[in-house]
Amino acid sequence: MLSLVTFAVQGIRKVISYDPRGMTWDQYNKLMEELFASNQLGHVAEENWRTWVDGINGIGYFVQSGSPDHRPYETWQDWAMAMAGIMSISPNAGSTY
User: Fold this and answer.
1) How far apart are CA 20 and CA 44, in angstroms?
2) Disulfide-capable partner of 70 in 12, 31, 33, 53 (CB 3.0 to 4.6 Å)?
């Protein structure tokens, strides 16, 4: 089941991320790629998930939102669960949701 975690924060910001439970890497990666299309995250093979995380962690609002480093996590699912609910996205950030 697809779950998009969204919360209003002070009426001007939203917290957005996908709940990865029940998803394959390809599903999760594609959804994140679409959600943040303006950042051109791209689609990578599952074995390259750490490199992909390093890439997104260098993008402005991912940094500002405290996107977790991949190193403490053994799987992309563990990392994605840590990511769910911490992304602060401004409505004017260029993301579609």
Assistant:
1) 16
2) 53
